[in-house]
Amino acid sequence: MNGEGVISVRQDFYADTSRNVPMMFKYGMQMVFPEQFHHMQWYGRDPDENYWDRKDAAFVGLYTLPVRAQFHPYIRPQETANKTDVRWVQLKDDDGNGIWMAGDTLLNVEARHFLDEDLDEGLEKNNRHAGELKPRQMTVFSIDLQQTGVGGIDSWGAWPLPQYRLNYQNYHYQFLIKPIIQHLSAAISVYK
């Protein structure tokens, strides 16, 4: 952390070449913030969710959207809310306090009021529906280098094309986290 409160985060992944791993689904980090950090603004692709293989019609620009509006209620709960080619992103509370983040490369980000395990039941499928999910009192934020594409170009079960798969190999990325403080009293209450 520098004198202005800016934190530099670096993540390095070194693939074990002795293992046979076909591909990774996602490479990045996830953070959990208090629920009140529910305003998201970013400079990247459009407010509708977009993915590596589903972004050509999503234009780059400055967008603002509440976290609750980013969840798409697919019939079966699943990954949702991703934004690609993000240059910077900020999460703020109603008073304008929060954090700003930017990477050393284009990033994928998503914010929602659900944990990953709320959306994916793993191997045990209980045939839940999105309407059964209850938002958590937290903001779950992912800042990723990349995730595998959606796939499904010829059927819903089809894997992404090879160029949209996150191969098992070494990955590195870095990003900055900077506080956004509107009032000193807000900073004191956060860090108490």
From TrEMBL:
Keywords: Calcium, Glycosidase, Hydrolase. One of its GO terms (molecular function) is carbohydrate binding. One of its GO terms (biological process) is lactose catabolic process. One of its GO terms (cellular component) is beta-galactosidase complex. It catalyses: Hydrolysis of terminal non-reducing beta-D-galactose residues in beta-D-galactosides. Its EC number is 3.2.1.23. This is beta-galactosidase. It comes from Thermoflavifilum thermophilum.
